[in-house]
Amino acid sequence: xxxxxxxxxFEPADAGRRDGNKNAQTDYRNMFGDAKARELYDGxxxxxxxxxxxxxxxxxxxxxxxxxxxxASDENPRIPAGYTYLAQLVSHDSVQSLAPLPDMSGxxxxxxxxxxxxxxxxxxxxxxxxxDPLAYAIDGRTxxxxxxxRLSVVESVRRSGSPxxxxxxxxxxxxxxxxEDRANFPPGNAVRQQTGSPDALIxxxxxxxxxxxxxxxxxxxxxxxxxxxxxEKLDGKKLTYRRFNDVRxxxxxxxxxxxxxxxxxxxxxxxxxxxxxKKNRLADFGDGTDDWRMPLEFSHAVYRFGHAMVRGTxxxxxxxxxxxxxxxxxxxxxxxxQDVPLTHDWLVDWSFLFxxxxxxxQPSRKIxxxxxxxxxxxxxxxxxxxEDATKQPDDNDGLVYRDLVRGADAGLRTVKSVLDxxxxxxxxHSPLVRRGRVSSRKIAAWLRTRAGDxxxxxxxxxxxxxxxxxxxxxxxxxxxxETEITTGRAADRRSKGECLGPIGSALLAEFFFRERVRSxxxxxxxxxxxxxxxxxxxxxxxxxxxxxxxAEVAAGQDWTDPKYQxx
Length: 567
Fold this sequence. Notes:
single chain, Myeloperoxidase, subunit C, mainly alpha, two-stranded parallel sheet
């Protein structure tokens, strides 16, 4: 399927390996510099028996975080539901590493991350038409005919009143005509049987993980194709490679404005956001060097918080009834190829997911240690006994357990070590920190409340261990769930769970704002690019939020039919 996630065309020139470092054989590092052994989380210890006990503890902890039922009090009115999936797209643009659950050996095997250039929309563009040709439209023999990204026509639902075909609103899909997949295509579906399983022709196949994410990807593809047409009209000729690269950088500029001015402003503690947005030198961050490797504390801990924001059901348009999380996740080329390409009734009306002015967007879930049961009980991401030798016949497991195990085995800093490396004044704003130390009493109280009448004989040992040395992801989720801001400007006030806590915000900001500095010169710092973007967006200005992006694409696509051409 091509070279998914190949490096982009404008990676920062000085993004090199630190070959002298003892961890240079991996693509990961600790935030704030390489951690010493005593600074790393180890649960109950490193012996085989203790590692098994740690796994059982993490499985128990995951069960403490399941919520069988959510209500309106769990909703976050400050973050519409669509930002959950924007955050997922940004994750794919930062980390590209698909790995199985770590084994029980305790050895840190080679870990690969294909995203050395981040926040540059490699997740949409890949390496460009030459490196990832399947993601691009092949309309002719010359390079200039391959500048646009592919899309698929959305199919009619084939009933009275269905609109005519021709709407390009799905990621590109195709199937091998020589494969007859009767297992996935039911009898009678002759057209789809003839074309085989429809694979997604996109630079990063993870962007087809669910219905909302795939159509969010389409928004950026449509913006790119619209700007290609605008530049051809402006120049009076087909795009050259240099002009294609300019368009790509303009789309990346829009994307980064949305990430930093819209998404992060919503996710981060307001005080932390104000501190980090002013940083403009690498020396202002972490270890102060340009170590390109991925910080484990970001990839294996704090950025997993988005799983807690996922709703159990979604409305995506006026026509389709509420759909459960499982239906949303499984409608893709990998899990249910018989259900793609999408039909018109599955088109997303973005006013249900972002604040586009119609006042009907759904909120995301509050950030905290509470997850939909699909993520905890193994309905969507089960763990088999082959993957995890500690699994017992009656165990539930799923995505939350996977997140906790991967973090525990990755070599993350302890919470104490994180606190030692952050500004002490910032840490004191955390509801779980007093005088530079974690409040074990608050953590233990929460665990006892959620554990209830646990049948696990080791529950008291688990509570004692977690309270003394909490897994970083759990600590950051609990911190967010307990963080509230009741003073200051009205715009900065937050109820519990409406943003990350101070420490979680600082870890997120350390990564994102540092990455912006690394590639600032080729995007925001390029004055010529800024003028070019202003020329292309002169009617409405350069988009700086998701509602702005939706409005720009809607205008370019003439989405005027109120029933089917959703805005």
